[in-house]
Design brief:
There is one protein chain. This protein has 2 helices and no strands. The relative contact order is 0.04. It is 59% helix and 0% strand. The chain is mostly helical. Among the domains are: 7-36; 38-74. It is elongated and about 85 Å long. The longest helix is centred in the middle third of the chain and has 32 residues, at 39-70.
Length: 102
């Protein structure tokens, strides 16, 4: 069975040159930089990244709680579902019998 080529060869080559090659180069560069760090420096980098992540997460969560408490949600009114007015003894052309006719 022959493989179908969805992406033309020229586009595939341009994509490889523009994205994949620089991405692999950055991976190698970053790996070399991380390997060059000693244990304490690596711990500091991880601790700083974790701290930035946690502060960002707490800010987003706190901001959401603040907006809820501020009353932005008060403009939405909750309405409950009301029962439908269904007539009880209406004859129809259905094949199912009405309870009074049984």
């Amino acid at each position: 069975m022959r493989k179908m080529k969805i992406i033309p060869e020229g586009v595939r080559h341009a994509l490889n040159e523009a994205v994949h090659i620089p991405k692999s180069r950055m991976k190698v560069w970053l790996k070399n930089k991380c390997d060059a760090l000693d244990h304490k420096q690596r711990f500091r980098v991880v601790a700083v990244a974790f701290t930035v992540f946690m502060l960002t997460t707490l800010y987003i969560f706190g901001n959401a709680c603040y907006r809820i408490g501020k009353g932005d949600a008060a403009k939405y009114r909750i309405e409950h579902i009301k029962p439908l007015d269904i007539p009880q003894n209406v004859k129809s052309d259905n094949l199912t019998p009405i309870a009074d006719e049984l």
